[in-house]
Specification:
Helix content is 40%, strand content 8%. The protein contains 3 helices and 2 strands. The two termini are 18 Å apart.
Amino acid sequence: MLAHPRLRAEFEAKLKSLAKQNTGSSTLVKRAIVLVQGPQIDRSEMTDKGSINQRAVLDNRRDLVDLLYSAKSDERILEA
């Protein structure tokens, strides 16, 4: 999906806009990955009430989290 240049540009423009508005360290988003598959209930990533289990997401998607926080450049990463 992010291989499409116009869609990627739109996502990155939104990230840059958010970065300008939210400059505090707790609200600033510099990089993002759009997931192909959302949180999975059967992997305990989402509760029955629809809340996100952050620990399960971090554990189950460790490779994406590591990639997001690495210095590497990757086509899956959007940057502000």
